[in-house]
Amino acid sequence: MDKFVITIARSCGSGGVRIGKLLAKKLGIEYYDSKILRLASDDSGISEDLFANADEKLKKTLLFKVSKKNFDGKVIPPESADFTSSQNLFNYQAKVIKELADAESCVIIGRCGEFVLKDHEGLLSVFISGSYDACAESEASEHGLTKKAAYEKVDRVNKYRADYHKYYTGKTWGHPGNYDISLSTDNFTDEQCADIIIEALKTKLGK
Predict the structure, then answer these.
(1) Are 141 and 154 in contact (CB under 8 A)?
(2) What is d(CA 80, CA 164) in angstroms, rounded to the nearest whole number?
(3) How many angstroms separate the Cα of 28 from the Cα of each of 50, 202, 207?
(4) What angle do CA 174, 62, 176 make, to 5 degrees?
(5) Nearest CA to 151 among 130, 163, 134?
(6) Distance linking the first and last C-alpha atoms of the chain
(7) Model confidence pLDDT, tens digit, residues 173-193
(8) Distance between CA 116 and CA 98 in Å, rounded?
(9) What distance in Å separates the CA atoms of residue 140 and residue 34, rounded to the nearest whole number?
(10) How far is CA 136 from CA 15, 126, 151, 153, 207, in A?
(11) What CATH superfamily is the domain 5-204?
(12) Can you give the pTM of this predicted structure?
């Protein structure tokens, strides 16, 4: 199979991270999630903590007005006063994502990957979700949360992801039209989900 990249956006508790790691293992390719922050830090010379803190600051704003400067492939030079702005930090992450996709086959979790790579010929973009109850039950089981706390976490994380995505892309997070496939994990195991995605990849790439 030629070089390709699978991007995975996922709702909280749906198992998207597990499925992404399983996909990478099955396909013998790299898996990238928060490692992108470290790579963006290395590329820009900006502290990795600043990348993480920028996300936290955005969480605390009166969420989020749509950014007027969506990613256009350009980063701001170090001499600019906006070099460490949240928009430029996102641009560096996007730059790293594009470079990874050009260099190797890989699985990329989150970071608006399907938007950043929308023009990449070898892209398969996936949105993984589950029912509200199933996702909350998964979070409660995995993290030892009460039922109430699990539902609150699912609500909080999904709202943040939707707002983050809208802020940086202007697009609606989770809308089926923004992804090649949308997959619910309610009635499929992680293994079955990974196999479905691999078959979709083969179909899209004509293999």
Answers:
(1) no
(2) 24
(3) 32, 15, 17
(4) 5
(5) 134
(6) 7
(7) 999 999 999 999 999 999 999
(8) 7
(9) 23
(10) 11, 21, 5, 8, 37
(11) P-loop containing nucleotide triphosphate hydrolases (3.40.50.300)
(12) 0.83
